[in-house]
Amino acid sequence: MREVFEETKIAGLTLKNRVFRSATHEGMGNEDGTPADELMSLYLKLAKGEVGTIITGLTAAQQSGRGSRNMRLFDSDEYIRHYTEINHKLQELDTPLILQLAHSGGLIDKEIKGLEPLGPSKKKHVLFSTLARELSDTEIKEIVTNFALAAERAKLAGFSGIQLHAAHGYLLSEFLSPGANRRTDRWGGNTDKRFRILQEIIEQSRQRVGDFPILTKFNAYDSQKNGMSLDEACRIAELFQQAGIDAIEVSCGTFDDGFNSVRVPQIPVEGLLHLLPQIRDMSKVKKAAVKMAGSTIVKKHEPLYNYNVDAAAQIKQHVDIPVIAVGGIRRLADIEEIISEEKADYVAMSRPFIIQPDLVNKFKHDDQQQAKCINCGYCLLGVSERQLKCYYGRVPKG
Question: Which of 213, 210, 219, 262 shows the shortest CA–CA distance to 237?
């Protein structure tokens, strides 16, 4: 029987257990896109806490894909030197660090001057109050090349692999979505055409990095009109395998879905009012309206726990490559069941590691059976402007 804490391999990469720290936007990027000093400290805590593999927060493959001021950038060789020491220290602790590469697409902070919301098709993004412009064929080809170049830099910087972020309504996710991608050229239409941008990114990356591990994260479903369905996701998973992806992480939802990708027991209205700049900076009248009706305007989704496990299990029936399940996984017993019953090959968690970077160590030594995370969602809101931290359901003073 498969065990949670056994050593495994993905594409020749040795993992000391089956638990991933899922990509989590740390808000630890400087104005110039370099990593803040605190990032190394965070990763070292996770590694010493016995997490099997760390996937970094989303990092932009090019300047136009940087969605916030505190998001990191990797569009130049100048960034390589900023990560070599981090990777060296994590290798000493036998903890792979995988760089998540992304393009924010239409999810752009409108306060960042010079950046334009972009997408496969024209689209209004409700939360960000942005209107994405449709990309040209030439721009799409440039994005493909920039992802491949960033993959090459990741290998040179000592990362253990990369993960292509194709979930949650970011650019690559929208290319996959029938509702978001309404193109009629070679980049849209049927499933194969909507997958083309990922196909070409993977092909060009392989030409540059060889058998360097390439993973992806994508949605099994969302709540958008004509959005991603599980049947479509199963077909896309097959295409990922055919394209040469080494492992897939199964997630769900978009920012316009409300609290779907990150689920909460109740809508964190106070957090929205004080931590999310799009709402915090509204007029008093609008803020009062949000306070009165926020819990009905912003969507809450259920179930709260293990909500992508069934989708991961179904996708796993369509591929031979490793499948990673993420989303509301909090209990050791659930992790053991997911792994032993082969619903997924690995599990990934995000929010539990914010409050407890040593959680895997506690699980391993039977010191704790469930994460302390209360799923309040404040961390997701606060990181838009601040460095990642656990608020434990409380609005910070000041």
Answer: 219
Q: Are residues 289 and 143 in the same domain?
A: no
Q: Tell me the pLDDT tens digit for each residue of 278-308.
A: 788 888 887 787 788 777 778 899 999 999 9
Nearest of 218, 66, 62, 91 to residue 153 by alpha carbon: 62
271 pLDDT more than 70: yes
Asked if residue 139 and residue 196 are part of one domain, the reply reads yes
Kindly report, residue by residue over 73-129, the tens digit of the pLDDT. Answer: 999 999 999 999 999 999 999 999 999 999 999 998 766 767 899 999 999 987 777
Does residue 303 have a cis bond before it (omega within 30 degrees)?
Answer: yes
pLDDT tens track for 221-246: 999 999 999 999 999 999 999 999 99
Instruction: Assess whether pLDDT exceeds 60 at residue 184.
Output: yes
Q: Same domain, yes or no, for 145 and 293?
A: no
223 inside domain: yes
Residues 23 and 149 in one domain: yes
